[in-house]
Design brief:
Elements: H1 13-24, E1 31-33, E2 48-52, E3 57-61, H2 84-95
Parallel strand pairs: 1-2
Antiparallel strand pairs: 2-3
Length: about 130
């Protein structure tokens, strides 16, 4: 559920004080904060805010498109590592012809037709009632 319009966007007071101080002094250094829950307001545009992701502070340069979002949305807390076994299998399938299982005849094991030979006759239609 979203926050009431009557209340306005939530911004921690200590973060707003740091932003006001940086704006007054034209300070371009990143502002360190642990407040991932704070909403980005138009006063933040053009500043770099270092948002804590649980391990380190991730620098986030605030643009106009970010206004209304939370700071925590831009400092990811989890690192996705690809599923290596699946990735290797797909690379083999895309780059190479698939091999048939041992003991079965796949398309690669079919005998090649001699050049100039007539094409093979189609299989006979199944016998049925006329």
């Amino acid at each position: 559920m979203s926050r009431s319009i009557k209340k306005g966007p939530f911004v921690d007071h200590h973060l707003m004080a740091k932003v006001d101080k940086a704006r007054a002094g034209n300070d371009k250094r990143p502002i360190k904060t642990w407040s991932r829950r704070s909403t980005i307001v138009p006063d933040f545009v053009g500043l770099t805010i270092a948002v804590h992701n649980g391990r380190q502070h991730m620098p986030v340069y605030v643009t106009e498109n970010m206004v209304g979002h939370k700071l925590g949305e831009f400092a990811l807390t989890r690192i996705f590592k690809s599923h290596s076994a699946v990735g290797k299998r797909t690379e083999e399938a895309v780059g190479h012809e698939r091999r048939a299982a041992p003991g079965t005849q796949g398309p690669a094991a079919a005998p090649a037709a001699a050049p100039g030979a007539a094409p093979a006759a189609p299989a006979a239609a199944p016998a049925g009632k006329k």
